[in-house]
Input
Amino acid sequence: MTGPGAPDGGAATGRGANLLGLVLLVGGLALAAWRMAPGLEEPFGPGFFGANAARYSIAGRNYDRHGFLAHLGAPDFTPGDPGDRPASLYLHHPPGAPLLVGASFRAFGESGRAATAPFLVVGLLALLALHRLARRVLGGVGAGAAVALAAATPMTALYGGHVDPQGPLLTVFLLAAVLFHLRARANGRRLDLLAAAAATGLGMLVDWPAGVLALGCALLDRRGPASARRATWLLPGVAVAFGVAFVLWVVLLGRSPIDEVWLAAKVRTAVPLAEESGDQVVAAASAAAGWFRDLMTPVLLVLAAAGLFPVVRRRAARPTGELEVAVRVLAATGLVHVALFPQGALVHDYWTYLLLPPLALLGGATVEALRRAAAGTGEGFRAVVAVAPVLLVAWWGREECVRDDEGIAAATGRADVTIARMIREQVRPAERVVTNLDRYNPVRSSLLIVPQFTYHADRAVRGGIATAEDLARAEAEEGPFDVYVHVPFGERPPLADELRERSPPRVLEALGLRVEFFRLR
Output
């Protein structure tokens, strides 16, 4: 058997290629699991990674406490006992991610690990789904190389187990939809087409880019084989049906779909530097490009760029042309996602995770092409040709894989958790707390901007309250608060001195810090 998709050599060579592909797959999964493991640490760490885990854990805790059908299944980010407060429902994304946290809490009990472990598993499933797709579109060891390259990137190390809709949870369904879509194109089986539609629907339950993918598949099928043209309207039809259902859901929850969609779009499209000078905008875009380069590594980007050349793909891919279809649909989905929501890409670099699968597929094609170009040099040398790029990606991105998020020391995070647990012990569940700590929910407690503190305190907390004017403004916006917690980080707020003159505080110690609790009413 000959041709681009055939094993290059006799039976021994085929067995050697299969073994090498298996080594790359298993090694990549092991590397990814090892690098993602710090996300399982308890309690939730300081900074961004811990913030998202704590944020969705508040919603997951409410699912576990109040039932999955409370608020028609909408995620409720109301911390603690809501009392008379209206529920803080989050409708910017579909509820897939918080539902997963809630299901894990119901099954395993509430804990940091119960929140993060399912997403680490999903991160590994995304790599397995990538391998299954790559096995279909690439020959030889290219599939194993694609997985190993993806696993070796800082993007996987940092965001492979990230608790959020964008990323691996969505990617699993996107890759499944593409795989079943390719199978339906090839064999015309209705079962594969229905499986692609189901994967699209599940993807829509997680986040909106699944609709972009469905449209991309449909546009490609307009010129595809007759056996695939039934998907021209089925997949986007599923996406549209979900969108209509989401609008009706929002209406039944008593919200305005236009307001919710407008707010979500405004938050994600309004670039904060729009009013700045051209040089500052260029600097911000350059910084974002630098994050993307570092997360993917220049090595993978060069390999992927080489895979764009037809001569490379002809040597590495199976002769069906499906590699081009998969890369185009996946890349278009990721690029449209970033283009429509530039604010997300500028602020949250994990929004570019969706571009990892097409880059890994092209990188795997390049590795396979190089390995085949080395035919006749011996299996040992050809194995080195396949493994060396993976090791280079892992070595190049080793420093970016460290979770030094926002430069906040781990000791500070431990103190925060200790103080939060003090609040849980000292303050009744329905009582509301304000604190001088400015990085905890500085706008409104219901927005949960950095929610680790709120999660561990298990009640509404508003931060950034340093003066009597700050307190008056907060109470005008949200109603009266019950307790003021002064934590000695930074300068001493004047409000603490004013409150001390009224009544003596209850003083506690948190890792050597003198924490003061003042009753406001």
The two ends are 83 Å apart (CA to CA). The first helix runs from residue 11 to 36. The chain is about 65% helix and 5% strand.
